[in-house]
Amino acid sequence: METLDKNFVSRSGLGSGSKDNYEPPTVSELQRLLWTNADCGHVDQVWPNLHLGDAWTARDKSTLKRLGITHILNAADGTFNINTGARYYKDMDMDIHYYGIEAFDAPDFNLSTFFDPAAKFIRAGLSTLGGKVFVHCAMGISRAATLVLAFLMICEKMTLVEAIKTVSAHRNISPNIGFLSQLRELDTSFVKERRR
């Protein structure tokens, strides 16, 4: 937290643990918060039974089997992205539930339209007996990370700061500036709801 000013720490509620005074940080403050020293492997567990990773892991069926993955959310689906699809996993001797989103890692891409459906898919996977969810894109740091952050905010009632700190403790992430703005809008809407 050395890179964060005292004003930000106070407004974000980082010091108190209370959401009563929480104000969503600016995008530049969020970018500074993302600067961590966490490792970034091909796949990392960032929440109980929730794994975040890259295309290499998405294509490595033996790793997916070893991890016990039952649900895969591909945030880079499609012909010009990571074109696995549900059929790619058909020959595995376990039933894989698949959800693909054809998202592009561009600041002007509206990923927020997928926040709720992705959160519901992740929640359903984690609620399944023995369910383990793998969320990925090409590198597992922008598109997929954004959807995991949105899940933590929507389903686990975290603030954006709490979600970033939770995921960043296990994996370096770096949503693009457009995705950070969309997450900030979601955060702002939850703050307004809490104050009603």
Could you please describe the fold and organization of this structure?
With 196 residues, this protein is an alpha/beta fold. It has one domain: Protein tyrosine phosphatase superfamily (Protein-Tyrosine Phosphatase, Chain A, Alpha-Beta Complex). Helices cover 42% and strands 11% of the residues. The chain has nine helices and five strands. The longest helix has 18 residues, at 177-194. The two termini are 31 Å apart.
Topology:
Layout: H1 6-12, H2 27-33, E1 43-47, E2 50-53, H3 55-59, H4 61-67, E3 71-74, H5 85-88, E4 97-100, H6 115-127, E5 133-136, H7 143-155, H8 160-168, H9 177-194
Parallel strand pairs: 2-5, 3-4, 3-5
Antiparallel strand pairs: 1-2
Helix pairs in contact: 6-7, 7-8, 7-9
Rounded radius of gyration (Å): 17 Å
- H and E order: HHEEHHEHEHEHHH
Alpha-beta content class:
alpha/beta
Number of helices: 9
Please list the strands of the largest sheet in the order they lie side by side.
Answer: 1-2-5-3-4
* C-alpha end-to-end distance: 31 Å
Pick out its properties.
single chain; 196 residues; alpha/beta; Protein-Tyrosine Phosphatase, Chain A; 5-stranded mixed beta sheet; 9 helices; 5 strands
Please sum up the structure shown.
This protein has nine helices and five strands; from the N terminus they run H-H-E-E-H-H-E-H-E-H-E-H-H-H. It has 196 residues and is α/β, with parallel strands linked by helices.
